[in-house]
Every structure is written in C-alpha cells, then in structure tokens.
Amino acid sequence: MPEDELLKVKYVQPFYRLLRDVNSGAGAYVVGLSLLLENNEEFTMVNIPMDVAEAIKLINDSDMPPRRQSIYTFLSSHEDFKEILRKTLKRVVIDELEADTGVYTATVEFEDGGISISVKMIPSHAIYLALISGKPIFVSKKLVDMEKWWGNESSEGEEGDQP
Questions:
Q1: Closest CA to 121 of 108, 103, 131, 135
Q2: What is the per-residue pLDDT for 73?
Q3: CB of 48 closer than 8 Å to CB of 30
Q4: Gap between the Cα atoms of 13 and 32, Å rounded
Q5: How far apart (Å, rounded) are the C-alpha atoms in residues 83 and 81?
Q6: Would strands 137-140 and 89-98 be described as parallel, antiparallel, or unpaired?
Q7: For residue 44, is pLDDT > 90?
Q8: Residue 67 to residue 90: CA distance in whole angstroms
Q9: Three-state SS string across the chain, please?
Q10: Rounded to whole angstroms, what are the CA distances from 70 to 29, 52, 73, 76, 157?
C-alpha cells in the first residue's frame, strides 16, 4: 500500500474499560488499543488479548516483567529475538476490516537478503512485534475515515434519541 494512503502511528496505549449492563449490573472488561496517529487523530481497536495489552503496557512503561510471564512479556526481554526482528521486519500496516465481523487485519512486511514477504496477522500481535523491534506502524486512511464515519453516525443517533 502506498505511503500516501497511510497514517503513521506515533504512540500505542492499551486501555481497559469496565462495561456494566444497566439492567442486571453485570460487568465485563473491554481491552483495547488506542493508536495516536501522526495527524493527532486516534484510532482504536477493541477485544485485544489481555496478555498482548499487558506486554505493550510493559514496553511503554519500561517496567520489570512480572514474575509469571506470558510469551509476549518473555519475548520482549529476549534480545536475540528482538535483533532478528530489527533486521527483518520492515513495517506493520493495519489495512483491512472484515465487514461481517468487524475484525481488523494487519499486513506485516519482512525483508531479508533481497527477499520480501508479507504476512497477514492479528493487528495487536503485529503492533507488538513492531514495538519491540522499533519499526513503524501505519493505519490505512480508509480505515481511519471509516471509524470517524461510524463515530459520527453513532453520535448523531444518540443525539436524536435525547428528549
């Protein structure tokens, strides 16, 4: 995908929100990632695996890994693994949305010895790889525009429902 169709991610922040059902009082946490883009807009993804979010939080905060580690927290402290990624990973692009399920897909581009390979991945996993290797993350402008459109549609509907 050409660079002029992409927005670069400046910062990735995990978030955890408790959602409560107003009728039953039951609650559940939603885990997500907030991506601050180069144009200062925010792009969000939800239903992120908790262990990936925790590993990204650890990368951001430079904390010591927990005593009981996930594969993600372990790999983020494994220098040989990170060095291989630094040498081969080129960039991550969040570039697809499955309309039926609302699930995003990322393309992870690798390059080594003149050979280029693109792999489709779960975006949170791809973002994690980019963060531990210091490689750029991009989001398709088309997806950002779609998220803005949905946000406007949602807020317009809410506004119309108010007395």
A1: 108
A2: 87
A3: no
A4: 8
A5: 5
A6: parallel
A7: yes
A8: 32
A9: CCHHHEEEEEEEEEEEEEEECCCCCCEEEEEEEEEEECCCCEEEEECCCHHHHHHHHHHHHCCCCCCCCCHHHHHCCCHHHHHHHHHHEEEEEEEEEECCCCEEEEEEEEEECCEEEEEEECHHHHHHHHHHHCCCEEEEHHHHHHHHHHHHHHHHHHHHHCC
A10: 19, 9, 5, 10, 41
pLDDT in tens, 68-112: 888 998 898 899 999 999 999 999 999 999 988 889 999 999 999
pLDDT at 23: 79
Q: Which two tokens stand for residue 125?
A: 């996993």
